[in-house]
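Our preliminary data section would be incomplete without showing what the modeling component actually yields. Below, a chain of 299 amino acids is followed by its predicted structure, encoded as tokens that our downstream tools consume directly.
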Amino acid sequence: MIFVIGEILFDIFPEYERLGGAPFNFAYHLKHFGFPVRFVSRVGSDKYGRKILDRIEAAGFDPNDIQQDDAHPTGTVQVQLDNQGIPSFDIIPGVAYDYIKFKPEAHTDHLRNADIIYFGTLVQRTHQGFKQIQRFLHHKRPSTKSFYDINLRPKCYSDEVIVASLKNTDILKLNTDELQKCKHVTGIDQNDDSFIRTMMDQYSLNIIALTKGEDGSELHTSTASHSAAPTTVVSVVDTVGAGDAYAAMLAAGILKQWSPQKTLAMAAQFAAQICAMAGAIPESAEFYEPIRPQMRNGE
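Predicted structure:
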């Protein structure tokens, strides 16, 4: 089972709205790949919160895992796209997902049954969020792999959060900008390859996945490093959620014990497919029908 904690929100584009939030996107993809997933978040008692609860249940998630907040609104993000479909985000503060609570009676058993626990940085932007997410992580069993999709957003993280999260991480996914930020936070001045090895040793990481945009991506393990070229997108609508799609297929590859090359290829391909549509998740579950057989090939 995959246990996912974090934000669910509405991305507000100039002409439309889409459900999103990196943890939700990650959970949604894996659910539609056929994995058992528990997704824990928090929404307000407002129109967006009601829409989310309806969508959660329709997608097959347990709505009881979504906490409801009468004091804070559901998360929203104002999204602007440049002429290449690359987004900039205005992330609204003081929203319901900032107040997710660890509840031992509801969460302990799920954490003990999880193969992977996924978390990110945005949900830890407040002291409250940081303490609660760290509580989740400290209650997992030793054999559960923690997957940290660092996903840094301006003014939504601190060095303390990054370091504490790395100390509780087995699988790290980040991009080239975030790799440079990790160098700054740790105070280690090395070339990228050397720094990745240093970080794996310093934080006892099992896997680092590095996305490099037009330069493809890399997968680093304790024994080897692998790289893959990007998949060409014929027509980019926007790149919102591409990293989350990559992370979801990466997790699938790890759980299914694919070869590093298959994992990289499948992750890049799926991210490219998300770039060819509006928003971070497809409007119809039919989107996944041709993908699942590809995931089974060669197993």
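The chain is about 40% helix and 20% strand. The domain at 2-287 is CATH 3.40.1190.20 (UDP-N-acetylmuramoyl-L-alanine:D-glutamate ligase). Preliminary results of this kind motivate Aim 1 of the renewal.
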